[in-house]
Structures are given as structure tokens and as C-alpha cells.
Specification:
The protein is an all-alpha fold. Helices cover about 65% and strands about 0% of the residues.
Length: about 170
């Protein structure tokens, strides 16, 4: 399977990615949301959105950062799995509801919002909301283009991002 378009070979996409990557850098430099939680949010939204490329990427990034593959295997059934703490559960619920806006005209439920407020401060919530928006955007680009999954390597991620930032 090949992507429909060599998106990052276009000048527009290079400029677009440069801005998206600046946002990604912000999550890692200006947010106190744990990296492990960030990867859970990105992984769960990507699973719901059917983005194979991002699902593969965020699973591998989480494992590369030290998360347990068996725990990550339970992300789709996080409600039934004891592998996640209450703060992670709140973030996973937010990720799910942000990816399923069409299913609920009111967006994120009051119950989920209360759980997020209980475990995160305003700065962290702002980062989580932005992260949900960002991963949903990435997912849509990759699903539209049918970017193939299974070829991502966390070890070369930095080199590819630096290339796109030029």
C-alpha cells in the first residue's frame, strides 16, 4: 500500500508540518503532562480515528520511552483494565470523546470534564485539549492520504522531523 500523495514533498505540506511540529515540540517543552499520558492520548485517539500510521507510531514511541507493551495492548479496553491510574483514565476519556465529537453534539461530557479537572491543573488541561486537537488533525491527514502503517521507527523520528522543519 502506498500513500495517495507524497504529501511532505509539497511546499505547502512542508510549511504545514513545520507548524504542526512546532506544536509537538511545545507539548514536550512547555507542558507538565507526563509523556506517558501524552502517548496514551495520542494512541487512543488514533485507534478510534482508524489511523494506522499514528497508532503504529504512538505505540512504538510509548514502548521506546519505556511503557509496557502489554499495558498498551489494553488501551482499547482501558475501562476494564487495572493498568491505568485515575489521571490516565481521565485523559483517555477526554481523548475518546474528542475523537467522537460527531457522536455527541455537546462535545466532552460533564463527567469526563470533572475527572480531567480533578487530576490536572489549568495548564495541563490546556495542553491536553490542544493535544487532542493536534492528534485528531494528524489522524485526518494520514487517513485521507492512506499513509501506510508499520514502517515507523522511533529511532529515526528526530531526523525526519528535523528534515521537515527546514
Amino acid at each position: 500500500m502506498e500513500a495517495r500523495l507524497a504529501f511532505t514533498d509539497t511546499e505547502f505540506a512542508k510549511a504545514y508540518y513545520k507548524n504542526m511540529l512546532a506544536n509537538e515540540k511545545l507539548f514536550h517543552t512547555a507542558s507538565t503532562v507526563p509523556h506517558r499520558t501524552m502517548e496514551l492520548v495520542k494512541l487512543r485517539a488514533s485507534q478510534i480515528n482508524g489511523c494506522g500510521f499514528c497508532t503504529d507510531m504512538h505505540f512504538k514511541d510509548a514502548v521506546h520511552a519505556g511503557d509496557d507493551p502489554e499495558r498498551l495492548n489494553l488501551v482499547p479496553v482501558w475501562r476494564e483494565a487495572p493498568a491505568f491510574d485515575d489521571a490516565e483514565r481521565a485523559a483517555l476519556a477526554l481523548a475518546e470523546e474528542s475523537a467522537r465529537l460527531a457522536d455527541n453534539p455537546h462535545g466532552v461530557s460533564d463527567e469526563t470534564w470533572a475527572a480531567v479537572r480533578k487530576h490536572y491543573d489549568d495548564e495541563q488541561i490546556a495542553a491536553l485539549v490542544a493535544m487532542c486537537a493536534q492528534i485528531n488533525a494528524w489522524n485526518r491527514v494520514n487517513v485521507i492520504l492512506r499513509t501506510p502503517a508499520g514502517f515507523y521507527d522511533p529511532a529515526t523520528k528526530t531526523a525526519r522531523y528535523k528534515e521537515l522543519q527546514k
